[in-house]
Amino acid sequence: MSVLTGRRASVLSGPRATRPRPLPAARRRGGVLLGLDWALLGAVAGLVLLGAVLVWTASAQQHGTGYLLRHLVNAAVGAVLLGAAACLRGRWLRAGVAMAYAVALLGLLAVLGPLGSTVNGSRSWITLPAGLSLQPAELAKVGLVGVLALVLAGPAHERPVVPGTARVARALGLAGVPMLLVLRQPDLGTTLVMAATVLALLLAAGASRWWLGALVAAGAAAAMAAVRLGVLADYQVARFAAFADPALDPRGVGWTTAQARVALGNGGLSGQGLFRGSQTSGGFVPEQHTDFVFTAAGEQLGFVGGALLLGLLAVVMWRGLAIAAAAPDAFGRLLAAGIASWFAVQSFENVGMCLGIMPVTGVPLPFVSYGGSSMFAGLAAIGLLQAVHRSAGAPR
Amino acid sequence: MTDRAALRLVVLRVLVLALMATLLARLWQVQVVGGPAYAERAVEQRVRTIVVAAPRGQLLDDRGRALVSNRTAVSVSADRTALARQPDGGERVLRRLAGLLGEPYARLRDAVTQCGEPGAAAPPRCWNGSPYAPVPLARDLPARVALQVVERAEEFPGLLADTEQVRALPRPYGVLAPHLLGYLGPVTADELAAAPALDRTDVVGRSGLESAYDADLRGRPGQRRVAVDLTGRVVGAVGERSAQPGHDVVTSIDARVQAVVERQLAAAVRRARGSIDPVRGRRYLADSAAAVVMDVRSGRVLALAGFPTYDPRVWLGGISRRELDALDGSGALLDRVTQSQGPAASPFKVVTTAAAAAAGYRLDGHYPCTSAFRVGNRSFANYESRAYGEITVSRALQISCDTVFYRFAYGLWQRGRDDLLTRTARAFGLGSPTGIDLPGEASGRVADAAWKRAYWAQHRRTWCAAARSARGSGFAARFVREACTDGWRWRAGDAVNTSIGQGDTLVTPLQMAVAYAAVANGGTLWQPRVGRAVLDASGRLVREIEPRRKARLPVPAGVLAYERRALHLTTLHGTGARPFTGFPLDRIPLATKTGTAEVAGKQPTSWFVSFDRNLVVLMTVAQGGTGSGTSGPSVRKIWEAVYGVTGNRVDASRALLPGGRPPPLSNALAAVRR
Asked: Is the ipTM of this complex over 0.85?
């Protein structure tokens, strides 16, 4: 926060010059389009609905419709967040992402305190009354992307320039704090997704190739050091080892990935049909309604369904990058590009893990996996994309 | 927007496209290209084949009494998933079971904890199997515990009670018969490869009848193919093939006779161990013994017992390495009736008599029974070096005069016809397995000129090496020198030794029983049989196991009749008379032949062979002394039990085998169906 505080006045001052800009005819008339990117919304809605069905099929055997209902409630709450975020304009948008960052940091600190609870070995949850729980790391992704966009874009009134060393260093400092806190939980997967997103943001911001190369090298060195120095827990190393050679751990992670691939292979081209997947109904794939939800699609809906899911995700990313290209200012551009990159990185890691080309880490598939925090963060981010889109004036 | 920023956005688009294209390609590879292989694996792991063990058939005696049967054993296993779901992790349930079993709770807790989990004990105490498979906790629960766990299953959530059929040994009349019945062992990899019908969980007969009739007893296990979910919970049936129970095997063993024979064999051993060996001046060791009762009309075995013996119940529920080693070390695993070999001694004289008759010696002629017989520079003494003057062959058999038989053998040897003796021995079934339906039978050995040459060729190097290094002209040096140069030669002394069952000819007790049965029945050499019939699970006859005539003795009926008469007289006036003093021989005309076999470096072996027109009863005790002193009294007790003799009275109502005949098969069939 301290890095930000000194510059709050300038950084948070919205693009006043553009605010009174006349709205396009359709929106001024109060037309149905509301200035929203409907292709993006449609793709997200499709993913959420497909996710609901998959979560249902993957959990029905053990839990009936319990997970389905909660998933739908999560989606509804997320839709409200989406709507609220889409309404943010100008300095409110900047203030909103800064708030998200601040709240996420507090949440990440709170996780370490008495409010935190441990699930699957990671202390990454805050338990709330009424059986609710939140994962601040998900919110931290939104905050991270937003604050980096703010910092890398520079003050709104400045002419957009390529961020210099000082700005990149400040951005890295702001990114490092939540990343270290998430790593401390430990949640290696989310940390890596964050790292890749930061890299994509720096790329989008036009940071020098020297910076990008240095960061990649530093990341590789850090990974080497982590393994050598025993910073990582055994299971984390084991997951990576099993990724390279599943036979190393046939009952643990290797088993999970093998089961995931058996489920996918069992789906074939057109799938076994909903509720007809033996791997899915038999509960052979662990965490199938959350991190491995893609395998439920693959087995029941086949390659066709899996490709459809990937297609919808691609539409979300493509629209996000299109919004970035059309954004009126550097902040909007970086915010949209960062969000699109985040979804791309996380989707690739999640689906890649199901397909056995990425190591197993606990990251959800955006909009599809069961999980409130992930759903809220994802839909709120879509709201931010819509806000940027609206500020651009006309859809592309 | 700067050009650079715009360019970077294009780079991002390309990157995103590349990532998604990668995923799509890999998805195609996994689902469409590799799909069939993975789909096969999916079927493999969701359909589980459960082997339904087939109840093994029973072994029954001649009246349908079970010698080996089955009983239901209850085992209990834990469903780890169900236990883990309980608020206390299943502690209450496990503590209750531990209390019932009288075992420490810690053992059960360790047993259900997956190896490698925090707090897990070291293998094998921890659970090393699949996390979803049921964990066996206790096998063959005591009836009281089994009842509780099965009947009040709701009080033991997470525990699964399972029943299985296990072998039981009812031991009618205290019968042990471990060598006869045999035991079971887990199937080996080789057997699995050889017999595709076997399952790797099967047990197969490892010795005795369990092994000989394994294919009949085993039955065919059933298979239940069920669909399961991840936790192994059965969600549906896919197919079923019911188990075919094994067939029962009715044997010719009579449990009551077997019990008497076992007791009498033990008594003979005790008797030997209680008397002093006059040559060595210490008690007889009596380290092994054998007895067999056989039907002379069919070769069916009614009783078969060996010593040392043991309680076959040690095999039930698995045997520990230490128990097995102890058993093996004591020699109790050897079936002395079919697997031990030794010199036949005087009982061999029926063979020599037949050979002499074939060579033209008149049996009613008179032959000198001198105290010793000289062959070359070697003197062969009569038993206890007594002389009886000129006697008939019958008398020679009665008093077991060795020198008469020496003379026959020497005469044959001089005429170059001593192969007649060894050929006759083979005709009596010696030197080859009898073919009894018990595994691992020894073949014995008939030593003749050809055998000696082969034996010499085999050992010549050793002997000649010893001869080269031997110094001086002592007995040992002369002996090895002669063995080296002349050891191949079948000498007159060898022929003479053979005539009284000494020397290098070895027999099993069963071979002698078969030979004497042939004398008793007028010349039929039977292949001995223990199995009598195979019944299916509902008691219907599947097949009868017919006795098989192996050969006819090439001995004229008159010669056999002569031998029978002579051996009957042996019981009345000869070496077999002492144990049968007061026995009603007028109504039960027994023929007997005693023997005291010399074994180099050991105390003599006691032989006692007896028969009438129905049965052969044979007993032999190694390092046990004389035939009539050690084995005779026990053999008499067996005959008394068979015919119901008390003192000199015969009470047919107390006879175990009235008329000396085994009960008809219908008896056993009726008993089984009842």
From this structure: yes
